[in-house]
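Progress against Task 2.4 (sequence-to-structure conversion) is shown through the following example record, which the project officer requested during the mid-term review.
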Amino acid sequence: MHAEHQDIGVSQVAAAIAEPARTKILCSLMDGHARTSTELAAIAEVSASTASAHLAKLKDLALVRLHVQGRHRYYSLADQRVAQALEALMVIGQSATPTFKPHTPDRLQFARTCYDHMAGTLAVLLHDRLLEAGWLDESDKQAYCLSDSGAALFEGLGIEVRDLTTLRRKFACPCLDWSMRRPHLGGSLGAALLQTALKRKWLTQDLDSRALALTVVGRREIAVRFGVELANENGQIKRSQSAAAPTGRVYTR
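C-alpha cells generated for the chain above:
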C-alpha cells in the first residue's frame, strides 16, 4: 500500500511538471529568484488567471512556495529538492535555465533600506556570505540563528546580540528582496547591522530616497570582516581570505 501511495505521488508530480506552462514556470524559478504571478504568466505565455491556476496546483503539490511581502506576492521553488529534480530532468532534456534580469534603478538595486534593514545586491551578498561562512544558520525556513563565532562577529561590531533576542520581533529572518528576488537579512539583527554600517560610515543614506551608498571605508571593512571584496557597485565580487568560516550555533529566538 505504501508503494502504491508513492506511485500516486510520483505520477501527480510528473503530471504537474509535464504541462508545458508549468514546466516554464518551474524552470524560470531555478535561478533562485522569486517572481510574481504576472511575471510567471508572461514567461509561460498564458493569461494571468491561467498562471494563477497553475501556481495553485504547483503550491498544492509542494513544488513552489508563496512569499507575501507587504502587498506583493512572490513565488519560488519550494526547496532544493525540487531544484535538484528539475536539474536532473534538464540534463536529460538538455535544456538551459533562464536567467533573471532585474529592472530596478542601479543605485537602488545595489543598496537601499527595506523598512529598518539593508536591501539590494549588497545585502543579498552579505546574507549569502553569512550563511556560507557558517556565521548564520537556518533554525527553520523563516528564522535564522547565530553560531558562536557568528555571535562573536556581530558583538565585535558593537552589536549586543543577547539584547536583540529579547525584543518582541524576529531575531533574524530571510526577507525577500524585491529587486534581486532572493533573501537578504531581516529581523532585529538585520536592523542592527544597518545601523552599525551607518554609524561606522560604511554606508551613507540619501536624504530624499532609500538609496544607500557604499563608502571607501565600507568597502574595506566588508572585505576584512566578512570576506566579501566588492570589485564595483554592480555587485561583482571576489572572495577575501581574511574571514574564517566557523561552525556551531547559539543565539536564536
